[in-house]
Amino acid sequence: MARSLLDGIRVVDLTHVMAGPTCTQLLADLGAEVIKVERLPDGDDSRRSVPPTFRGPDGVEESAAFCIMNRGKRGLALDLKTEGGKRVLGRLLDRADVLVENYRAGTLERLGFGWPQVRERWPKLVYCSITGFGRTGPYARKGGFDLVAQAMSGIMSITGTSRGEPPVKCGPPLTDIGAGMLAAVGILAALVERARTGRGRLVETSLFEAGILFTAWQSAITLATGTAPGPLGSAHPLSAPYEAFPTADRRWIVVGGANQANWRRLCAILEAPALADDPRFATNAARMANLAELRAILSDLFRRRPAADWLARLDAAGVPAGPVNDITEMLADPQTRARAMVVEVEHASLGRIPTLGCPIKVEGAETGPRKGPPRLGEDTVAILQECGFAPAEIEALLAEGAVASPDRPSAGEPA
Questions:
Q1: Which of 69, 31, 68, 63 is nearest to 47 (CA)?
Q2: From the first residue on, what is the mean pLDDT of each consecutive set of 10 residues in the chain (415 residues)?
Q3: The domain 3-214+335-404 is classified under which CATH number: 3.90.650.10, 3.40.50.10540, 3.40.640.10, 3.40.309.10?
Q4: pLDDT at site 143
Q5: How far apart are CA 88 and CA 163, in angstroms?
Q6: Catalytic residue numbers, as ranges
Q7: Phi, psi of 411 (to 5 degrees)
């Protein structure tokens, strides 16, 4: 059986909702043991992001949002405001390589687990902090959500069809997912350095900075010209044609015919060879200067045939193109299935449920989810035993409400 890349790496996951869970799920997919520590009494906020839910054979329901972000992790339910809860977290960190948190600035410091305190007690620990705006600067204590980060990073000013229309958010939580990915990269780099030096590092990133990173092309334009670009629909800010076009059967396709070779191929496919040398469109700079005219002409041409016909012709000629799929079509796409991007995992109450696969493949190594998402506190007792707590100590922690398990829920949690 192939070895997982991060076998032996233990991650304490103090994150919730999206950015942090994205980071820790990637680490779990690469083989790390991730212990998801959920706050009592209610756990991760995404457990209440319903509907929709997955429903088990005995009627048990779990949030689909929670399940999609937390497969591959073990679950421990903990109240860090109790002395027992703090003692448990300390024991976890005694055995851990990485701690990941996305609390508001100052919260973990008040509880005794901020970076300055952790660095002194666990000098080998890699400590990752994901915040809305970063740990320094005038917005350091400002709470952050993807919507706010997309707005303030400029993403919403370049998303949509035209200036003057209401601002539009990118559909996926772009800055949440981006920050989670950046955090995972930083953690892996810090682990490599720790192997050389024996010491951990503080790794941090933010939703705001992730959003800024996604504006690379538009920032290049603004830095070079002093003028901020606006929304272009599906078009590219620097190359044309590179956007979506309607077809005869009312399906949309996207076409990347921007470089000169593909531009000439596209003109031949469209049976409009004169366009290739038309002074308005002969070069990329000319096409960008006359983008509205180009779009109108190409749209009329694409409306002459159905989408499947055009895609077959474009593929045969090597011009990058594809259909605009909805999510159902994407999940059923043969390439999605061939790349194991939809898989099933086992859930303790729901049975086998579908989830997204791991987008990172490494030759000779196993990547991807190895278990389903945990029920709230599913592994609490087992993890406490592994940390050296005696049965009487575990019972005392449960009685105190410092921890909870499915058969011993905390106060305020339904049995």
A1: 63
A2: 87 98 98 98 96 93 97 97 97 98 92 97 98 96 95 97 93 98 98 98 98 98 97 95 97 95 97 96 97 97 98 98 98 98 96 97 94 97 98 97 88 44
A3: 3.40.50.10540
A4: 87
A5: 53
A6: 176
A7: -60, 135
Q: Which residue has the tokens 């591959």?
A: 72
Say if pTM beats, i.e. exceeds, 0.90.
yes
Q: If you count DSSP H runs as helices and E runs as strands, how many of each does the chain have, helices first? A: 18, 16
pLDDT for 410 equals 63
φ, ψ of residue 107 in degrees (nearest 5) = -65, -50
Residue burial 14-38, b: 16+ Cβ < 10 Å; e: rest: bbbbbbbbbbbbbbbbbbbbbbbbb
At a CB cut-off of 8 Å and minimum separation 6, what does 367 contact?
4, 5, 29, 30, 31, 358, 360, 361
CATH topology of domain 242-246+252-323: formyl-coa transferase, domain 3 (3.30.1540)
Pairing mode, strands 98-101 and 10-14: parallel
Tokens in use for 334? Answer: 């043969």
